[in-house]
Write a structure and sequence with these properties.
Arc Repressor Mutant, subunit A; alpha+beta; 4-stranded antiparallel sheet; 13 strands; elongated; 11 helices; SH3 type barrels; 4 domains; 23% strand
Length: 312
């Protein structure tokens, strides 16, 4: 094993086994303790902060430093980082950084990996909906607050045309669905968890405290999907579909509606403010169905059918 390879292996052992001793390093690498200590000293010289604990139970552990030293990534980890940079949900202000980060990564990896990175670099990601992208100055503080379990004050617009209002919340998780970011959080003094679209948040302020809140949803992504599908909307839609629930589930996005089994048939449940959209969405599936509620949806479907007859 070359000196460089041995020192990289030393770094990998320090990452995987915090508190590992010079004796243990030497045994794993088949070298003397003196050489192990010399390798640790060299890693410190090139920028890694490695703390040492004296004594019989002491050992080495990596610590955060002021500067970012070279990262030790294997081929699969490099591929994962590259793919994430290419296909991550768009965030205003970070697009250029993602491109330059991928370019730098390509320059420093071993030459045998560059073909793989070049292929990943050609993966195209769909842009987020126009005007519906989270800002980096909102996304990053939200992520930090979730990690620190710290309450925040957000300025949130319930609708695109409404004014942003300050709300104090206890954050739980960030979730990304259909290339948009959502924050699961509980308002101060509330008993229910809510979902906030981050593209409707224009400011986040840490409050340096934590609120008492009810037990958080165990499945944050499922909670967001269910919230988006069912409320709060003007109309609660229920339709009976004369086919199996499995078939309908394969067609329906869970963030839009839920499918409930009803014997050999099923029901679609969703919420909406726009019955014209609901009628067109249901017609798209070309399924045999009956409207249970609201009755206005039946009128909307008849209007759509008449328009199609008149037009075609």
């Amino acid at each position: 094993m070359s000196t460089t390879s041995r020192r990289l292996e030393t770094l990998a052992l320090l990452q995987a086994h915090p508190g590992i001793s010079a004796t243990q390093l030497a045994a794993r690498l088949g070298i003397t303790e003196r050489t192990a200590r010399r390798d640790v000293a060299h890693l410190r010289e090139v920028g890694y902060r490695i703390d040492a604990e004296a004594g019989r139970e002491g050992g080495y552990r990596l610590a955060a430093g002021r500067a970012m030293p070279p990262l030790l990534l294997d081929a699969d980890e490099v591929a994962a980082v590259a793919l994430g940079l290419r296909t991550a949900v768009a965030v205003d202000g970070l697009e250029a950084a993602a491109i330059t980060a991928l370019a730098k990564l390509t320059q420093v990896v071993p030459s045998r990996w560059r073909t793989r990175l070049s292929a990943l670099g050609e993966v195209e990601a769909l842009p987020a909906e126009s005007g519906r992208r989270a800002d980096r100055d909102v996304l990053i503080p939200a992520a930090l607050a979730c990690r620190a379990n710290e309450a925040i004050r957000i300025r949130h617009r319930r609708h695109d045309t409404s004014d942003a209002r300050p709300t104090d919340v206890q954050p739980h998780r960030l979730v990304t669905l259909r290339r948009r970011w959502y924050l699961v959080a509980c308002p101060r003094g509330a008993t229910d968890w809510l979902v906030y679209a981050l593209d409707r948040v224009d400011h986040i302020q840490p409050l340096g405290t934590r609120f008492d809140v009810p037990e958080a949803p165990s499945d944050a992504a499922g909670f967001v999907a269910d919230t988006l599908a069912h409320g709060p909307w003007r109309y609660r839609v229920r339709v009976r579909v004369h086919t199996s629930a499995d078939l309908v589930r394969s067609l329906v996005n869970p963030t839009v509606a839920s499918v409930v089994e009803a014997g050999d048939e099923c029901e679609i449940h969703l919420g909406t403010d726009d019955l014209d959209w609901a009628a067109r969405w249901l017609a798209y599936f070309n399924l045999d169905l009956d409207v249970i509620e609201p009755p206005e949806l039946s009128d909307q479907l008849r209007t759509l059918g008449q328009w199609l007859l008149d037009r075609y």
